[in-house]
Amino acid sequence: MPASTLDCAQRCIDVLSAAEDAPHSPLYTVMTMANTLESSRQAWVIRGQSRSRRVGHWPSWFARNTVEKPLLYLHSAQSSAQLSALADVTQQRGILCNDIENQPSPWPKGAQPSLPLWLATHPRCTPYDPASGEEARAIVLAGLHTLYVDGEPGFYYLALHDQQSAAVLSAQDREDALKGMYPIKRDHTGDVRLLGAGRALEDVLHAARLLKQDWDITAQVWSCPSYTRLAREAAAAERWNRLHPTAPKRSCHLRECLAANAAPVIAVTGYPQAIVDQLAGYVDARFVALGAGSVQAGAPSRYWIVVMALRALADEGRIDLQQVETAMARYPLK
């Protein structure tokens, strides 16, 4: 990485770190960071619309410069074709932030089903779905450091929603969020473990309260900004262990987080279920994946999360199956 690029990146990190604000939504936070970077003149901040597949419709003037600067691209891509073209015009570099979730759409999270699958399978893409502005800030700062200070190849992707959040993360939370998941409350266990990403985390938190209030069942809640990063690291560790059968086994962040007990794990996303299905082979406990289309057309509601948690506990023999039937009659499952 050229020294001038590294210098620009470090100045971006410094100016953003000095401008930390109160917790907000991921969209508000990234927009504020974009304004700060634009004023610093140390990064390219592109505000584009990705509604057309024609690359010529998007600004590419930054590519004519001989020195690479950090790139923050704000866009609204709803299909994998649009996102693929956008990644190509940026030479698969930079931090791409998509606000399509905040616009009217018949698709879950505003994205056609092919888009999250493209993100999950693109080897140069590190995708995130932050639940809070604090998570989004940590991810953007990490992207600047990884891509432009360390000089790693590829690009970061953030799905941005505009739902207010009061979350405040510790230094450990921020570090773990970048790896893919962190607990909402540390040193807290539960009868069931609930995982949520992006806007779906709010329903997961509501489901945890309902489980305690209505069924006296405790839930440990985890925020998972990147199911894909968790799955990739777990797959890499498993492959290494397979190729080195006599060496000490490598672990992964997912298994380390969930190793405390054997309580059932319910993983929730607003994207199609396939995104959380990636974790199924690496969770050493009963695992239930819930996404758009799993039990209802959109993201699963807090009530369905409760029912699925109860069913997982019933399947383990920890509660009576009658409680599941009672819950299905009690809640508005639509």
TrEMBL record:
Q: Which SUPFAM superfamilies match?
A: TK C-terminal domain-like
Q: Name one Pfam family in it.
A: Transketolase_C_1
Gene3D superfamilies, A to Z: 3.40.50.920, 3.40.50.970
Q: Which InterPro entries match?
A: PDH/Transketolase, Transketo_C/PFOR_II, Transketolase-like_C_2
Query: What are the residue boundaries of the Transketolase-like C-terminal domain, all occurrences included?
Result: 180-282
> Which keywords label this protein?
Pyruvate
The family database entries (PANTHER family) matched by this protein are listed as: PYRUVATE DEHYDROGENASE E1 COMPONENT
Which protein, by its recorded name, is this?
Pyruvate dehydrogenase
**Originating species:** Pseudomonas trivialis
